[in-house]
Amino acid sequence: MIDPNRFLDDLHALRRFGAAGVGKGVVRPAYSEADMAARDWLASRMAEAGLTPRFDAMGNLFGLAEGPSLLLGSHSDSQPQGGWLDGALGVVAALEVARVSTGSGGPAVSVVSFQDEEGRYGVTTGSNVWSGGLFQADADALTDHDGVPLGQARQVVGDRAGAPVDPAQFTGFVELHIEQGATLDTAGEQIGVVTDIVGIRDRVITLTGQQNHAGTTAMALRRDAFQGLVAFSSRLNERLRNVVTPQSVWTIGHVALSPNASSIVPGQVRFSMQWRDADVARLARMEAVIEETLSKVAAELDLGVEKGPLLGLEPVAMDVDLCAQLEAGAEMVAPGKWRQMLSGALHDATNVARCMPVAMLFVPSIGGISHAFEENTDEADLVAGLHVLAHAAGL
Ligand code: HGY
Ligand code: MN
Ligand code: MN
Questions:
Q1: What are phi and psi of 380, to 5 degrees?
Q2: Best mutation site among 346, 351, 360, 370 for ligand 1, i.e. most ligand atoms within 8 A of its Cβ?
Q3: Are 62 and 53 in contact (CB under 8 A)?
Q4: Quick one: which of 115, 282, 299, 368 could link to 59 by a disulfide (CB 3.0–4.6 Å)?
């Protein structure tokens, strides 16, 4: 029998690894001490649940059932400032469903916590490598914003790593996740059944001008990298309006100004450029506008441009049969308080869809807040999501 209190206790226990900031925030980036300690704890809980824990070389952690099984899970790494539920909810709910199913001779259910879903080193990197979307050597060359290569960071996995886990042993993948947006919360609904996950593009861009004295360098003579970023961003906002819809998003989230000093004209700026949309053709049109705007501004301000590798994932549709099971569960658990919806956030399910049928379900995020310490969800909604997941697993 699903035990909501045991599930909630596990959620609060997992939050203690990297607990930080206000509310229930966590700081548990991929391969950090807190991340690996959390994975060791999850491995012990998987063993107690009757599963066989197995790390792979990337640090993805599986709890394997015997024979063919349905895979449930998500990720347990966090953003640099993360909420306690992003990823963690799906892993802990999967653990509770697998524990009950194994204990009652029910359908075989395996559990996974993917590594670096939050893309400290790329974009959903752990499940990307595991599903064959990214070669290990290419992943190892990816660096975080401090320049540390993933190949070096993942050494912390050490001798935990066992044989690779073959995706062929799984019949499908279902991921429970918080919505990370305001749709369900605003509508007073409890469950979202995801129809599609948007696509994403992400790259690091460097503009290089001339570092100089802030007092003696006339404005007309400056090659100011920060002004280049300002001009790029404001013109981009104007020019993208012609190709986007209200669901399209683009973000400059990381900015490193050099040398970042009050009396020095900035000679260089390194920034992340990320955009997302449900339509592949529109992602390409957005890319063209970004490229044109960048080269125009660089030419006008006499700045050098260096573009890092373009990382990305295509939009993906969820499996209709697995969705039907989630919809039946939603109607049973939250009659009239569920909807089908698009996911504006990226998830490991996008990568896993390369190897098997996948589906996702959401529970509300209070105020739509996520990727922030304030992220939270009512316990009743967390438990509702757990019950719908259990129903989809055949419990
Ligand atoms: O950015 C995302 O969509 C995910 O939460 N990593
Ligand atoms: Mn997530
Ligand atoms: Mn996230």
A1: -60, -35
A2: 346
A3: yes
A4: 115
Q: Are 114 and 73 in contact (CB under 8 A)?
A: yes
Contact 53, 91 (CB under 8 A): no
Atom of ligand 1 nearest to the CA of 87: 5
In the chain, what is the greatest distance between 2 CA atoms, to the nearest angstrom? 78
Q: Which residues pair with 360 in a beta bridge?
A: 175
Using the atom order of ligand 1, give the atom closest to the CA of residue 200: 3
For residues 106 and 97, give the distance between their C-alpha atoms in angstroms, rounded to a whole number: 10
Q: Which ligand lies nearest the alpha carbon of 116?
A: 1
- Decide whether any atom of ligand 1 lies within 6 Å of the 117 Cβ: yes
180: phi then psi, degrees, rounded to nearest 5: 70, 15
| pTM of the predicted model as reported, rounded to 2 decimal places | 0.95
99 near 3, Cβ under 8 Å? no
- Structure tokens of 258? 């050099």
Question: Closest Cα to residue 185, out of 334, 81, 337, 74?
Answer: 337
Cα–Cα dist 216/212, whole Å? 8
Contacts of 368 (CB under 8 A, 6+ apart): 179, 180, 181, 182, 183, 185, 186
Nearest-atom number in ligand 1 for the CA of 370 is 5
Smallest Cα–Cα separation from 201: which of 114, 295, 289? Answer: 289
Distance CA 157, CA 151 (A): 11
Q: What are phi and psi of 117, to 5 degrees?
A: -60, -30
Q: For the segment 144-186, what is each residue's pLDDT rounded down to a tens digit?
A: 999 999 999 999 999 999 999 999 999 999 999 999 999 999 9
Q: How far apart are CA 277 and CA 344, in angstroms?
A: 8
Output the six-digit token pair for 144: 């975080």
Looking at this protein, which amino acid is placed at residue 116? D
Mean pLDDT of 344-369: 98
**Token output for 197:** 């996950």
Tokens 């890092």 map to which residue?
308
What are the respective helix, strand and coil percentages of the chain, to the nearest 5?
Answer: 40, 25, 40
CA gyration radius, the chain: 22
Length of the chain equals 395
What CA–CA distance (Å, rounded) separates 167 from 170? 6
Amino acid making up residue 21:
G
**Tokens at 62, concatenated:** 């599986």
